[in-house]
């Protein structure tokens, strides 16, 4: 884990309320892997006091991108940053996605902003020889649907579900996952999921029923980000674990939902 100054390269709105920020920060980027996260000091004074956590959306040798939704004080501060501004970055934090050796079939399941850290994972998966990757993205509506073009551009079959039917199928992303697995019974894909708790719980249930490996990245509230405050403890089959330090990625069958 490194605390470093990052330089904002670009910071633009990709859809109303959603932003993509590219940051030059080789010290952190060189050590980062998909599924890990960083925390950013989102202000120049004492408010907000806590750093805000974000997944690595894309990673290169010289820096990274974060894809974020403007929600409150911290993300409002970020959305106002201009190219050339400096930010205080701490990372990489957490464990990241472990890609099981020898596997070739993968499903990426994203709900809402959970899609953000799955883009860098997708880029790693498509580099695996003969890998078959399918992305299923769920969002409230077309207005909140992100990354569909990105997944398609890197050659991934991409299926979309929206709650209101404004794009893709009118259903939950986990309904699409069920249909996909039903139609491809001979496949034994590893599922990587990130999104709201109920979606992850449903994905855990589906994968358990079908005997599939499933890794979930939890979006628990994180305060310190380094395992000191114990504020992000969750119950697992091997006792309490900290989302920030032992996660945010867990094998779905380890979690007591
Ligand atoms: C490991 C991890 C990775 C994340 N990655 C992304 C990402 O890539 N893109 C993205 O848009 N968001 C991501 N988030 C959520 C993001 O951290 C919050 O949206 C952000 O902290 C809100 O800050 P704020 O000051 O703008 O809003 P606030 O006004 O502080 O909070 C508004 C809402 O955000 C929630 N929130 C606040 N702080 C946190 C926190 N520390 N962790 C989780 N939820 C919080 C609160 O429950 C509240 O409902 C991630 C969260 C975690 C834990």
Sheet with the most strands?
7 strands, antiparallel
Name the helicity range.
10-25%
- What percentage of amino acids are in beta strands? 25-35%
Q: Helix-strand pattern, N to C? A: EEHEEEEHEEHEHEEHEHEEEE
Count of strand segments: 16
pLDDT < 50 runs, ≥5 residues: none
| CATH-defined superfamily of the largest domain | Nucleotide-binding domain of ferredoxin-NADP reductase (FNR) module
Q: What would you say the CATH architecture of the largest domain is?
A: 3-Layer(aba) Sandwich
Summarize the structure in words:
The longest helix is centred in the C-terminal third of the chain and has 14 residues, at 197-210. The chain has 2 domains: 2-93, Elongation Factor Tu (Ef-tu), domain 3, CATH 2.40.30.10; 105-254, 3-Layer(aba) Sandwich (Rossmann fold). The radius of gyration is 18 Å and the shape is globular. The chain contains 6 helices and 16 strands. It has a 7-stranded antiparallel β-sheet. It has a 7-stranded mixed β-sheet with strand order 11-10-9-8-12-13-16, with helices on both faces. Helix content is 20%, strand content 35%. The structure holds flavin-adenine dinucleotide. Flavin-adenine dinucleotide (FAD) is lined by residues 37, 48, 52-55, 66-69, 71-75, 113, 116-117, 219-222, 248. Flavin-adenine dinucleotide binds next to strand 4, strand 6 and helix 2.
């Amino acid at each position: 884990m490194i605390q470093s100054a990052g330089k904002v390269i670009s910071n633009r709105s990709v859809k109303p309320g959603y932003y993509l920020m590219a940051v030059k920060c080789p010290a952190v980027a060189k050590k980062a892997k998909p599924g890990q996260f960083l925390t950013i000091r989102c202000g120049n004074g004492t408010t907000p006091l806590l750093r805000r956590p974000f997944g690595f959306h894309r990673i290169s040798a010289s820096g990274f991108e974060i894809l974020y939704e403007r929600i409150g004080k911290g993300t409002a501060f970020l959305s106002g940053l201009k190219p050339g501004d400096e930010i205080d970055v701490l990372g990489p934090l957490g464990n990241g996605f472990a890609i099981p050796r020898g596997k070739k079939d993968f499903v990426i399941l994203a709900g809402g902003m959970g899609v953000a850290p799955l883009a860098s994972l997708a880029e790693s998966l498509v580099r695996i020889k003969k890998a078959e990757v399918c992305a299923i993205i769920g969002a409230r509506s077309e207005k909140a649907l992100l990354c569909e073009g990105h997944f398609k551009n890197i050659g991934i079959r991409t299926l979309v579900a929206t709650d209101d039917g404004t794009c893709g199928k009118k259903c939950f992303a986990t309904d699409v996952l069920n249909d996909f697995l039903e139609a491809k019974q001979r496949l034994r894909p590893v599922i990587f999921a990130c999104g709201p708790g109920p979606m992850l719980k449903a994905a855990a249930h589906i994968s358990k029923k079908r005997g599939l490996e499933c890794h979930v990245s939890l979006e628990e509230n994180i305060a310190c980000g380094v395992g000191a405050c114990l504020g992000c403890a969750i119950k697992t089959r091997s006792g309490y674990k900290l989302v920030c330090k032992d996660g945010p990625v867990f094998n779905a069958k380890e979690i007591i939902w």
